[in-house]
DNA sequence: AACGTTCCCGTGAACGTTCACGAATTGCCG
DNA sequence: CGGCAATTCGTGAACGTTCACGGGAACGTT
C-alpha cells in the first residue's frame, strides 16, 4: 500500500501536510511530540504519515538540529577477539554518551584502511581506532577531525593515542619464569611490521634485567595457525628453549596447540605466557597465563578521549591515556 | 591555529569562499575534484580550507546528493562469538555495497533493544539484526523501514527473516550418537525465553525418530558458566545420560569444562555436540563436534536482502532466506 | 570585425527539516 | 460587549551543500 512500484520521489513532510490538510510545522509538532497542537489534528497527522509511509530525512533533520553525534571505529579484524573486546567496550561507552558508532573492519589491509579513512572523514564527527599507516597519511586523510589512536606510541602531538604500557607486566612475567627455573626463554613476536614490536623490546629488557642471554625470537602471524608454526620453527632451531613469551594470546594459543602436538607438556616441558588477557585464554587447556590488559578500559578510554576532544572540555593528557598490563597467572606458565 | 577556544559557529563553505576570494561553487569544485577550475585557484581554495579547518557538513551534503546509505546492525551481545562472526560477515557484505554500518549492542536487554530501535529508525536506511521483541512492537518502532530479522521464525510477512534450518543437521547428530551406542541423550537448552527453543523441537523430533524416549532437558544461560552449571544439574538429576546436545557452542564448551571437572572423560564417558560451528570450538579440548552453521552466509544473506529491499529489486523469497546446518564431527562426540 | 569555442567562474534554486515569530480563534472576566 | 490571555496553527527564514544554468574573458577562425 505504502510502497511504490515506480521509482517515485521521496515522501516529504510537505506531502503529509497536504494529505492531512495542515502545514509543515503542524506535522513537525505532531511527530516530535511538541505541544501547541490539538489532539484530534495530531491524530489526523499521525494517520496521514503512517498511510503515506513517511519517514523524516535524517539529513534534513541533522542539518537544522545539530545534536546527533557519530563516531567511526576502525579496527583491523573484528574476528580477532582482542579487537572484539575493544569494540564492545567502545560501543558501550558510546552508548553512554548517546552516540552512534560506525564500525569499519579494514581486514588487516593498509589499502582498505586508506579507503576507509577517506570515506569516514566525511561521515563522522570523530575517529577512534587502530591504524597502521603513518601519522602524516592519517593527518592528510582526516583533516582536522578528532582522532584517537589505540595502541600506538605517541610520536607527534597531532593525535591522541592510547598507549599500552606492558613494561612492568612483562618484567613480572619473565621474573616469574626465571624463578621457576627457566633460563632459556624465547619469544614469538608478530610478523606484521618490519621492525620488532615494542613488546619485544620489553621482553628483551626484562630478560636482560634478569641476567639472561637474549632469547631467540620467531615471527608469527596474528592467528592460531601462525602461533603454531612459529613455535615449531622456534623449537626446531632452539630445542633448549623451555619457556616462551608471545606477542599476544592468539599466538600463545597456537603455541599451546603446537606444544601438545610436539608432545611437550605445558607447563612442565614448556611454559607459555601470552599477552592481552583475553577471556578466550580461560577456555583453552591448560588455561593461559598472560600479561593481561584491561581491554574494556582501552575501548572506553579511547571513546572518552574522543568525547573530550569533541566537546572541547580539557582532553586527557598523554600520561592519563595509558592502559597498564599486569601478570595474570593461570596454568600455562 | 585552526581550533578555537571560544564556542564559535561552524566553518562553512562560505567562509572558505570568502577567505579564498571565490564563490561557494568554486570551493565545491576544488574540494570534490570536479573540473572547470583553474589549477592555481584550486590550490588557493585548498589552502584556505586547510587553514580554516573546514570540513563539509555530512548532513548538508547528504541532503542534496542522496547517495550514502547506512544500515543499522543490532545484536544482543558482540562478545558472544556467534554474533561476532555474523557481524563481521555483515560488515564485509556492507562494505562490498559501499554502505556504512552502525552497530548497536543491546546487551541482551529488551529495554535497550527498544531504545535502540527507537533511535535507529531515524538514523539508517535499513535495519538488520537479531531481535527478541514482538513483530508488532518492531513494526511500531521502525515504521516502514526495511527490516531483516536474523534467526527468527517467520510469523508474518511484514518482515524478511533469515531462518536457520537445523532440522536435518540435528537429526544427523542424534543419529550419529545413537549409532555410537548412546541411548540416553540429554539437551542443554537456552534459558532466554519462556518457551523451549526451536532447536529443542528439532532435538525432540530427532530422538523420537530414532525410537528413543524423550531425553531430559536443562535450561542454561548463554555463557560458558551457564553451560557448566546446567550440565552439572542435568547429570545430577539424570546420571544415566551419556550424551548431550546443546543449544549452542558456548553452552557446549561450558559442558566440556564441567565434564572435565566431574571426572567424565569426553567423549568416552560423555559425548557432547554443540550447535553453531564456531571457530572457537576448534580451540578447546577436545575439539567440539557441532551442528555447524554458515555464520558468514548468515550475515551476508541478511545484508543482501536488505540491499534488495532498499533498491526495490526483487527481494529474496522466504525459502531462499534459509541457512542450513550440517553436522561437523570433531572429537567431542 | 564578427563569431564560435573553450575555459573559468558565479548566481539562483533546491534538498527536507526545524526555529522564531506572528496571526487567528476561542474562552473568560470585568 | 470590550479586552486580554491561552490555545492552536501557519509563514518566512535558516541550516550547508550541490545542481543547473548562465555569463564573461581569452583565443582562434573565417
UniProtKB/TrEMBL annotation, chains A, B:
State if Coiled coil is listed as a keyword.
Answer: no
Keywords tagged on the record: DNA-binding, Transcription, Transcription regulation
SMART domains, per database record: HTH_LACI (SM00354)
- Residues forming the HTH lacI-type domain are 11-65
**Domain of life, per the record?**
Bacteria
Q: Does the record's keyword annotation contain Transmembrane?
A: no
Q: This chain belongs to which protein, by name?
A: LacI family transcriptional regulator
Q: Which organism is it from?
A: Streptomyces camponoticapitis
Q: Do you know which CDD domains this protein is assigned to?
A: HTH_LacI, PBP1_LacI_sugar_binding-like
| Pfam families found in the cross-reference section | LacI, Peripla_BP_3
Amino acid at each position: 500500500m505504502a510502497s511504490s512500484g515506480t521509482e517515485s520521489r521521496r515522501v516529504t513532510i510537505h506531502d503529509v501536510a497536504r494529505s492531512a490538510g495542515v502545514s509543515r510545522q503542524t506535522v513537525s509538532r505532531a511527530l516530535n511530540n511538541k505541544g501547541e497542537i490539538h489532539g484530534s489534528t495530531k491524530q489526523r497527522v499521525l494517520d496521514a504519515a503512517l498511510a503515506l509511509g513517511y519517514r523524516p530525512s535524517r539529513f534534513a533533520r541533522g542539518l537544522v538540529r545539530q545534536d546527533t553525534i557519530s563516531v567511526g571505529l576502525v579496527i583491523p579484524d573484528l574476528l580477532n577477539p582482542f579487537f572484539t573486546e575493544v569494540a564492545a567496550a567502545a560501543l558501550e561507552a558510546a552508548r553512554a554518551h548517546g552516540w552512534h558508532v560506525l564500525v569499519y573492519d579494514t581486514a588487516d589491509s593498509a589499502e582498505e584502511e586508506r579507503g576507509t579513512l577517506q570515506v569516514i572523514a566525511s561521515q563522522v564527527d570523530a575517529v577512534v581506532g587502530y591504524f597502521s599507516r603513518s601519522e602524516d597519511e592519517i593527518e592528510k586523510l582526516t583533516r582536522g577531525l578528532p582522532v584517537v589512536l589505540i595502541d600506538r606510541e605517541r610520536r607527534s602531538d597531532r593525535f591522541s593515542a592510547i598507549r599500552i604500557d606492558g613494561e612492568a607486566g612483562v618484567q613480572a612475567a619473565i621474573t616469574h619464569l626465571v624463578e621457576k627455573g627457566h633460563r632459556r626463554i624465547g619469544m614469538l613476536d608478530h610478523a606484521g611490521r618490519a621492525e620488532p614490536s615494542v613488546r619485544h623490546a620489553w621482553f628483551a629488557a626484562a630478560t636482560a634485567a634478569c641476567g639472561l642471554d637474549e632469547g631467540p625470537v620467531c615471527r608469527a602471524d596474528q592467528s592460531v595457525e601462525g602461533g603454531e608454526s612459529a613455535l615449531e620453527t622456534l623449537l626446531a632451531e632452539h630445542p633448549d628453549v623451555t619457556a616462551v613469551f608471545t606477542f599476544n594470546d592468539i599466538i600463545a594459543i597456537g603455541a599451546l596447540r603446537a606444544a601438545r602436538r610436539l608432545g611437550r607438556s605445558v607447563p612442565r616441558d614448556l611454559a607459555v605466557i601470552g599477552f592481552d588477557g583475553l577471556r578466550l585464554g580461560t577456555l583453552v587447556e591448560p588455561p593461559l597465563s598472560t600479561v593481561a590488559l584491561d581491554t574494556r578500559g582501552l575501548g572506553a578510554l579511547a571513546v572518552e578521549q574522543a568525547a573530550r576532544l569533541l566537546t572541547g572540555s580539557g582532553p586527557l593528557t598523554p600520561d592519563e591515556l595509558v592502559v597498564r598490563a599486569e601478570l595474570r597467572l593461570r596454568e600455562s606458565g
